[in-house]
């Protein structure tokens, strides 16, 4: 590129995503791009003309492919296990006179759906390392987490708010997680001082999310294996497959796709 160009992937006036400035190309390696964080503000970009000419790992828009060996297998493992958990939860309610459960019927339906949405929200953002893909991934991440996952989890939690210690911990933690994530990105990260200060918060948001996610899976395991409802209406094999094996596969799959270079603390 011969001059600086500002690209608005999402309307910056809405405050949901910042504009991205593509500056003249300089020599930057992959690790430098990775260290930029998820939203890619201020990153130098590789000249697309030379990238397209190389013909290796470049799509028609000149964006480098970001998949890493094993990512595809991990993605399939997470997706299949999430579907199993989701189906077991929904069928366990819908095939056993759901009206007889009262408000409780909404709990496994909402929580399993929210967990599936959170899994997607994490998976879709993990491999991104270039400004265009980071912007698109962040948009999908925010829609999944803020618009669908969090409201669904809140609804499911309020359906059975009592005697749910782990669920309450997850709920409170998630509230902070969403606040920090939104504050570090929306309106240019003004909540945390904007610019580099706000950008530096993102790695803590990411680390917190990776610590919260297994706690949420463990909470689903407790409800799916040990609750009175699951023991009454789900067979032993279904409980094992959906709430013991599936959470483990989901966690291993998600963790295998972590990019440590996006969380450099030292």
From TrEMBL:
| Taxonomic placement | Eukaryota, Fungi, Dikarya, Basidiomycota, Agaricomycotina
Q: What's the protein here called?
A: Cytochrome b561 domain-containing protein
Keyword hit for Transmembrane helix: yes
Q: Where is this region: Disordered?
A: 28-64
User: In the UniProt record, does the keyword S-adenosyl-L-methionine occur?
Assistant: no
Q: Please, which domain of life does this record's source organism belong to?
A: Eukaryota
The transmembrane segments are 73-95, 101-123, 143-160, 166-187, 207-226, 238-258
- Gene3D superfamilies on file: 1.20.120.1770
UniProt keyword terms in alphabetical order: Membrane, Transmembrane, Transmembrane helix
């Amino acid at each position: 590129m011969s001059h600086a160009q500002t690209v608005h992937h999402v309307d910056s006036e809405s405050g949901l995503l910042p504009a991205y400035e593509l500056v003249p190309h300089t020599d930057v390696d992959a690790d430098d791009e990775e260290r930029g964080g998820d939203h890619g503000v201020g990153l130098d970009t590789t000249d697309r003309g030379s990238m397209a000419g190389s013909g290796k790992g470049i799509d028609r828009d000149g964006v480098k492919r970001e998949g890493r060996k094993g990512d595809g297998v991990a993605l399939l493992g997470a997706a299949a296990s999430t579907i199993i958990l989701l189906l077991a939860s929904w069928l366990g309610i819908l095939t056993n006179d759901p009206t007889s459960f009262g408000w409780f019927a909404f709990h496994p339906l909402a929580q399993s759906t929210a967990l599936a949405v959170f899994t997607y929200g994490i998976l879709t953002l993990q491999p991104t390392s270039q400004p265009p893909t980071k912007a698109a991934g962040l948009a999908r991440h925010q829609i999944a987490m803020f618009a669908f996952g969090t409201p669904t989890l809140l609804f499911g939690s309020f359906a059975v708010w009592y005697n749910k210690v782990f669920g309450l911990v997850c709920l409170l933690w998630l509230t902070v997680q969403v606040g920090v994530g939104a504050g570090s990105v929306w309106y240019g990260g003004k909540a945390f001082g904007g610019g580099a200060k706000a950008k530096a918060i993102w790695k803590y948001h990411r680390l917190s999310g990776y610590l919260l996610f297994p706690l949420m899976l463990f909470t689903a395991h407790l409800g799916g294996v040990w609750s009175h409802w699951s023991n009454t209406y789900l067979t032993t094999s279904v409980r094992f497959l959906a709430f013991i094996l599936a959470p483990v596969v989901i966690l291993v799959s998600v963790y295998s796709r972590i990019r440590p270079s996006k969380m450099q603390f030292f």
